[in-house]
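Could you please consider the sequence and fold following this short note?
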Amino acid sequence: MIFKRKLLIPKEIKEMYPISEEGVLAKAANDAAIRAVIRGESDKLLLVIGPCSADREDAVIEYISRLRSLQERVADKIVIVPRIYTNKPRTTGAGYKGMLHQPNPQAQSDMLRGLISIRKLHMRALNETGFSCADEMLYPENHRFLDDLLSYVAVGARSVEDQQHRLTASGLDIPVGMKNPTGGDLSVMMNALKAAQSGHTFIYRNWEVESQGNPLAHAILRGYVDSHGITHPNYHYEDLSRLCELYAGSGLQNPAVIVDTNHCNSGKQYEEQVRIAKEVLHSTRHSTDIHALVKGMMIESYLEDGCQKPDGGVYGKSITDPCLGWEKTERLVLDLAELWV
């Protein structure tokens, strides 16, 4: 291991790029709207939606600006939380790892530039659109660089069993969605939720810290891969009923699930997200328990359909997993607003 250089700490980067007073107020309003959905105080549908990975600032901001106009059209039924995922976990560790590592996907890794780039991107989204967004907590110690800008955090399938992710989630005051692991064992996810909703004393960024527990920690179903490498979805009626049963015996606060319509639920067939989202809503109409549990969906969407290689050069097209393009996204969100009751 080679120690290349000492990076700036969160306080220093926040002082370089401070949040505005208007941004503070916008985030507070967004936080309240999202919390109300997770707590069951609001009957709106939560959509955590955006690119698989935030690869370039200009395209991401254009996409989120379009979401702002769309949000205004569906405000009576839907709360939109844009995905700005600045880290990209890789199963093997190889390949593009996201803006934090490579603010320029064609250049070498530069973590200092990356830390500055991801803060600037989230700040632009907040200042220009009023959205405080969602990001994946790939590295728990990095959360402090963005904690004043985020309204939602996801813990991924590869991280949900990690103790530091669970303990860090327990100290946050915003909703944290915790995915089922890649192997599909829902008990792992439920244990993660129990840990995240409980208080702890632990080491964080060289401090002894104490958390009070996060009652807004909740489940995300994203499908799984079995021991033979076969993909299985877990968004069907029977899967949601099973999760209702697990929650009923858990003692957890604010039972809630967000259904990830891509990844193993779609077999990475991105256009299937449209059908999956509508099937989930169909399930909510046939069970009051499922209707109460399902709070929303996670959808991978960008300006252009599909995906390309990192050097593909198509503006607004994913360089990681394939995404729904804008036209299909807009139609889906409008349809969901019409179907959600």
About this structure: The mean pLDDT is 96. The domain at 10-339 is CATH 3.20.20.70 (TIM Barrel).
